[in-house]
């Protein structure tokens, strides 16, 4: 797994694509949080990072599929997937190596946003009033969200040899998991009980729950379960493709 992990990290940062993806993510955050008046942290009148945590999941819908879309698609396209299968690596070694390398890149993209916390703290009249618990919870929520989106992206890449198709599948699936169930719950025919369970099936419900600053084990289990399911489906997809090609 470690060999796959190192290979993926080196490959990502050996091309300008990786840097561009992260820079665009941070640039978009900076513009929305400090330049555009409707979402600017400076114009809210409150010392908090709520706009960041509202915006980041939407940007992740584009960033993470862009990071993961080549994970397996390029291996299929170049024919190196068959080569990997001949090496002393288990199926889980390949899947987890791809997953953790992509997740590390997501974490790297998130780390510079910590500067926003210190900026708000310096600008605040009373820094002691900052909701540190809520901010920490929101960052934990973003990490869990990033891990789930990464697992979905890796799975999407295992379905096709076309990186752009993998990107679109990941974008659509992440959107459905994040916002689709919440939107379905608002249909009048589901009101009165089913709406609550539909919300619970979606990522947004659990992300908002963690963002309140209380780390509930049920939310953590949800994120880990969805991530685990997508990684398991990735392994099954690889086995099917290798069996067909064999």
Structure write-up:
The chain is an all-alpha fold and 246 residues long. It has one domain. It has helices at residues 2-13, 16-34, 50-68, 73-78, 80-86, 91-110, 114-123, 132-157, 163-185, 194-201, 203-211, 217-245. The chain is built from 12 helices and no strands. Helix 2 (16-34) runs antiparallel to helix 3, helix 3 (50-68) runs parallel beside helix 8 and helix 9 (163-185) packs antiparallel against helix 10. Helices cover 76% and strands 0% of the residues. The relative contact order is 0.13.
Structural class: mainly alpha
Name the average pLDDT. Answer: 85
- Low-confidence stretches are none
Instruction: Give the proportion of residues in helices.
Output: over 70%
Rg, Cα atoms, Å: 19 Å
* Total of helices: 12
Q: What's the β-strand tally?
A: 0
Strand content: under 5%
| Morphology | globular
Distance between the termini: 23 Å
- Report the major sheet: none
The succession of helices and strands, N to C, reads: HHHHHHHHHHHH
Number of domains: 1
Summarize the SSE layout with pairings.
Elements: H1 2-13, H2 16-34, H3 50-68, H4 73-78, H5 80-86, H6 91-110, H7 114-123, H8 132-157, H9 163-185, H10 194-201, H11 203-211, H12 217-245
Helix pairs in contact: 1-6, 2-3, 2-6, 3-6, 3-8, 3-9, 6-8, 6-12, 8-9, 8-11, 8-12, 9-10, 11-12
Task: Describe what is shown at a glance.
With 246 residues, the chain is mainly alpha-helical. It has one domain (2-245). The protein contains twelve helices and no strands.
């Amino acid at each position: 797994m470690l060999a796959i992990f190192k290979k993926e990290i080196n490959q990502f940062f050996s091309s300008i694509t990786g840097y561009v993806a992260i820079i665009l993510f941070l640039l978009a955050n900076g513009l929305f949080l400090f330049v555009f008046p409707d979402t600017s942290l400076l114009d809210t009148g409150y010392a908090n990072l709520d706009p960041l945590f509202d915006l980041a999941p939407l940007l992740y819908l584009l960033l993470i599929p862009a990071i993961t879309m080549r994970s397996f698609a390029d291996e299929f396209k170049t024919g190196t997937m068959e080569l990997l299968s001949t090496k002393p690596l288990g199926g889980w070694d390949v899947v987890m190596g791809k997953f953790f390398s992509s997740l590390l890149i997501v974490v790297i993209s998130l780390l510079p946003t910590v500067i926003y916390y210190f900026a708000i703290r310096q600008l605040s009249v009373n820094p002691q009033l900052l909701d540190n618990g809520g901010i920490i919870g929101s960052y934990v929520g973003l990490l869990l969200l990033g891990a789930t989106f990464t697992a979905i992206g890796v799975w999407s890449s295992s379905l096709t040899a076309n990186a752009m198709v993998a990107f679109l599948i990941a974008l659509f699936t992440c959107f459905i998991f994040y916002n689709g169930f919440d939107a379905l719950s608002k249909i009048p025919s589901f009101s009165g009980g089913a709406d609550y369970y539909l919300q619970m099936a979606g990522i947004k419900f659990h992300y908002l729950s963690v963002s309140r600053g209380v780390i509930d084990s049920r939310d953590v289990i949800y994120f880990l379960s969805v991530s685990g399911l997508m990684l398991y489906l990735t392994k099954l997809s690889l086995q099917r493709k290798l069996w067909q090609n064999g």
